[in-house]
Design goal:
The protein has helices at about 25-40, 95-105, 115-130, 155-170, 175-180, and strands at about 5-10, 45-50, 85, 110-115, 135-140, 145-150, 150-155, 170-175. The chain is of the alpha/beta class and about 180 residues long. α1 links the parallel β1 (about 5-10) and β2. α3 (about 115-130) runs parallel beside α4 (about 155-170). It is globular and about 45 Å long.
């Protein structure tokens, strides 16, 4: 049993360069996540992967059975790593995520993945609502440019806005380097 688990959200091929829905700096975020995966495995702590499978008719990405829906090789699951498959934004909704954490004695989750403004945000808020302590390793999270009110909001601004909102009341935010130096 471990009180702290690493949760990797949606590091799937479609979010990387050449994928069907590439984000900004996904490879850099995944490279940082890979460092955390190694640290958690070396410490004997759980590493839990989350992948999204699109269930909508005509989905453009994360289509089950495609290479794009597979977890990227930079952070691929090892034997014994649980993989939670979801079809909603929130990885707790209609999955066994809560039971998976509870049966492992997890009380704190360290979160990385994609996208800052969607699945990472939803997971962090839900985990906090369920009473888990939450740390987000902000440089191991990726997102994309968004459009609002006739203007493009750069990914860096989207990311900063969501990370600052999560830091306000839902999670501790740290860099990969700071996390690994603990």
């Amino acid at each position: 049993m471990s009180e702290n688990a690493l949760v990797l959200i949606d590091f799937q091929n479609d979010y990387f360069d050449g994928g069907a829905f590439p984000l900004v700096n996904t490879a850099a975020a995944a490279a940082n996540a890979a460092k955390l995966v190694a640290a958690f495995r070396n410490a004997g702590r759980p590493v839990i992967h989350v992948r999204h499978h699109a269930t909508e008719e005509g989905a453009d990405f994360f289509v089950p059975g495609t290479q794009g829906a597979e977890i990227h090789a930079l952070v691929s699951p090892a034997a014994g790593d649980p993989v939670v498959t979801k079809s909603n934004i929130n990885a707790f909704l209609d999955t066994d995520m809560k039971a998976l954490l509870d049966t492992r004695g997890v009380r704190h989750v360290t979160v990385v993945g994609a996208m800052s403004h969607m699945c990472v945000d939803a997971f962090v808020r839900a985990a906090s609502d369920f009473g888990f302590g939450v740390t987000v390793v902000h440089d191991a999270v990726a997102t994309r440019d968004l459009d609002f009110g006739g203007r493009t909001v750069p990914a860096s601004d989207v990311h900063a806005a969501f990370m600052s909102a999560l830091a306000f009341a839902y999670a501790e935010l740290v860099s990969t380097e700071d996390y690994l130096q603990r």
